[in-house]
Amino acid sequence: MLDERSVRCLGVSVASGSAEKLQRALKSAELLETSLHPFRSGGRIVFPVKAPVPESILREVEAVLVEEEFIERRRCPRSIREALSTVLPPELLAELPSSYDIIGDIAVVHIPPTLEPYASLIGEAIMRVNQSIKSVWGEAGAVEGIFRTRRLVHLTGENRTFTIHRENGCIFQVDLRKVYFTPRLSGERMRIASLTSKEETVADMFAGVGPFSITIARHSRARVYAAEINPDAYALLVENIRLNKVEDRVTPLFGDSRMVLSERQVLADRIIMNYPSNPFGFLEAALKILPGRGTIHLYGFTESLDKLRIEVLESLANMGASGDVSVKKLRPVSPRKFLAAADIAVKSR
Ligand SMILES: C[S@@+](CC[C@H](N)C(=O)[O-])C[C@H]1O[C@@H](n2cnc3c(N)ncnc32)[C@H](O)[C@@H]1O
Fold this sequence. Notes:
The protein is of the alpha/beta class. The chain has helices at about 20-30, 55-60, 80-85, 90-95, 120-130, 185-195, 210-220, 230-245, 255-265, 285-290, 305-320; strands spanning about 5-15, 40, 45-50, 65-70, 100-105, 105-110, 135-140, 150-155, 160-165, 170-175, 200-205, 225-230, 250-255, 270-275, 295-300, 320-330, 340-349. A 7-stranded mixed β-sheet has the order 13-12-11-14-15-17-16, with helices on both faces. A 4-stranded antiparallel β-sheet has the order 2-3-1-4.
């Protein structure tokens, strides 16, 4: 636990019956030290003060000047660096993560190897900075596998990974141990929703718990088909569709999006391909459910926007299609790579 600090300072001791009167007098003389806690000792209260108190105030309530240890009042630190400034040496303070994800009332943080011995202290610091956080988890390894999940280690707070996350006026149940979810794409989800019109049919090929599908359906009122292969994510997707009252517009489909969308004979005007580790493995299937013209939003990890744009154009050409491609950087994922969005206006097939 982070220790409470005590400070030796000047105080005024008074019988508890006169404490309120003295407190008022000290406040109006601007002498009360508000960063420290007063305390009770026997039948007396001891108030911390900023400077010697005039005899006239002391005499009025029969108080005496003393020197005592006072506990510092806890105030919320503004950053984990500030919270740990008296606990970690400067060279380790410099290595503290500058950001972490907040999903509902859970925080997920990347702890560099040098700070691993201090992982639970960092967790406690996060909970002091953000008082609404009830549980902190550390990332243990990369996002991996078909389901794109990540191993997490519990650092502090409640031992649970289930939470309810709110963004863009939508609500999502998430279980971070079982499904993929990032709050960092909330702006991108709204961008796509704002590009979509009510008359469109949208296919979300990698729906997860539904953040793209549900945001689009709620804000544009378009018809959405949401495919997901992870049974845990699918179960939460179904629940989130109900919670957000979009059952009439979002159809969840369980299984491989390369199959379930065409089996359902979906013909889309717009397709979301949020599978950045292997987007091109699914482009052929996407083109199959896009009748001639339409828009694909493809996400990929890349070192350069030009490289991604050329890869998209070449893949389209290999599949007998063409289109206009505009690309944009979303967020860094490693020192050299970032996540990028390619908006593809497919022209012909
Ligand atoms: C990167 S996550 C994106 C989830 C969601 N779009 C979001 O923003 O939170 C990719 C998702 O695709 C799912 N997935 C992987 N392969 C799939 C496939 N062939 N068909 C359908 N879903 C798939 C994974 O289980 C995972 O939930």
